[in-house]
Amino acid sequence: MTALPAMERTRNPQQPGPKGAPVPKQEKSVDFFSKSKYNLARKFIMLKIFYFDYCAVFLFCFILMSIFYRRLTTGQANRVFLFFTLTMLLDTLCDIGMEIGARYLPLNRASLFATEIFSYGYFFLRNSTNFLYVLFIRAITRTSQKRTSKRDRVLLTVPYILIMIFIASNVFHQRIFTVTAEKGYSRGPMLPALYAGTLLYAAIGLVYLISCFKYLQKDRWAALTILYPVTILAVIFQYFFPQYMVEMFSMAVAMLTIFQLVLRPEEIMDTRLGLFNDEAYKNEIRKIVATKQSADLVLIRMTNSYQVRSFLGEEKFNSYILKIARVISKLIKEVDIPATIFFDQSGCFSLLFDADFDNMEQVVPEKFKEFKSRITDVSEYGLRLEPKICSLRFPDDISDFESLMHFGRIFPSLMNPAQVYTSASALVSTKDFQLQNKMDIILKRAIRDHNLKMFYQPIYSVKDRKFISAEALIRLQDPEFGFVPPGLFIPAAEKNGLILSIGDFVLEDVYRFIASPEFKALGLDYIEVNLSVSQCVQRNLTEKIFSLQEKYGVPPDKINFEITETSYDNSHDVMDANIETLSHAGYSISLDDYGTGYSNMQRVLRIPLNIVKIDKSLVDNMNTTKGQSIVKSTIRMMQDIDMELVAEGVETKETLDNLEEMNADFIQGYYFSKPLPEKDFIEFIRNKNEC
């Protein structure tokens, strides 16, 4: 809103007039005490006038320093807000200069000229802020990128141009304001016309905010909206009490609120790097989705960032990332299309372009083909990050938020190992992506339509020379995608919370199978059942198991519960209590995948274990002398503490012979059999054990 300048000034009657003019009649003198009170009151009024503007200058400077200190200078919304704040600071300084020149300086030619310049600056800048604030609203909601009609663009820009022309024309008609030696600064009859333009942009801004309510969080929407009522109240107050220059101060307070609640630098910036973080990236993508816009992106994921970070340490890694960010900034300048850079601590740079990148598929490979060599040049530590680069058009390639986030995580795994660059259009049509992208749907359909089946892989006893147990393994056969590997659907189920439903199905089906006459006829000792971390930390896990035990009449010694070594890396009291309770109830416990985590005997001794299963990765290394020594030492160590040992992943006769020679207790692997459906497993055990 445009407030009227605080007070008009008429020339001091005691000040000499032009040469030859009659000297005005002197007023009646006042006593010293009354004059002192008058001067004191005048100084008090002057202090009141400038106190608020001085505070406004301080707040605007504080906001500007915060913007530069926190590096909030990239991205369209940040750039508009920066320019908006700078405009308000200059406008406040012009307001102060205009008031000082019109009220407290001698009315000579220099002061009149300065006052006039400050007045024009005040009106130009103050009426520009209304236009800039609408642009900021469009930028923060990302609706400025949305293709608007010509009529909308005209409605937004033409009134601003007309207002600027109208203010400039005051040089000729002097009907907005005048600055003269006789009257000082005085308002003209056409000054209220500026209010029409101000009210127009206030209306446009409010309508825009109302239409964008669904695109913003409630607190951000309220912070953006509050500027209008605060400014209107300040203008009304200043109109009736012109000695109090509160308009700029109220604007400064409102903008500080917007800075903290809308831009939220602490939430969207990685303060260690000065880069926008993953949360800021997600916020921008949500706005794009909500406003049904198109967007061009380039994703650069460093596939070995975890290893490089571990080697360099946090400080050197961050320094390396900053150098890479500068390389990316140079590439963006070469492309000549503004873009915002986001960085996810998992090792992914996301480049969101502010305008359409029409020839992206041609330009990006050309500009980024030397990217690997450039980031090698910035490394001072003898190693480099390995990038995978993908250009993407939203929504042409991917049309929803979750799919885009998922694609950003997995696209390197869909690329050829030697490939550095690809486009999303070349990946999204592959079966692998479709499978991973629709995993939630596949899992829900599997639970609903009973697409989950239990398979069993036999376990061979070296001592008894026969199969004495088996591991129960879950399998998923989808009607659309066919066989879905457990390595894909198990992590997805753990992430979306469906792992508990799958775990309940596994327990129910295994207990049913063990209670069946067919299983009892096989003479097997037990079945191994995997417990996920999510199951282990359930407070009612033991209640579920004891309920199934009673329902099917299965004795505890017929089931061995497997927990992975890596799951115990983050174990807590509930998990420990569940394992202890099951062990005391007569269930045996085995540690799966031994050798994949931070293996140590302290953990092995702490858990009430009966069996340890050596991971396939250790068995595969038995073709080397060192690998054989590790496995042999592990077998001997476990037997010395009265634990049985299962070697997993045995695929050749040579490996089997070596393990038998080392006195391994049990052997499991494809050499004997792959996991089999229940019916085939029963037939397999009957045939093999009879032989």
Question: Could you give a quick summary of the protein structure above?
Answer:
By secondary structure, the protein is α/β, with parallel strands linked by helices.
Tell me what the structure shows:
- With 691 residues, the protein is of the alpha/beta class.
- Helices cover 56% and strands 14% of the residues.
- It has 28 helices and 19 strands.
- An 8-stranded mixed barrel has the order 10-11-13-14-15-16-17-18, surrounded by 5 helices.
- Helix 2 packs antiparallel against helix 3 and helix 3 runs antiparallel to helix 4.
- Residues 4-48 have low confidence and may be disordered.
Keywords:
691 residues, alpha/beta, Alpha-Beta Plaits, TIM Barrel, 8-stranded mixed beta barrel, 56% helix, 14% strand, elongated
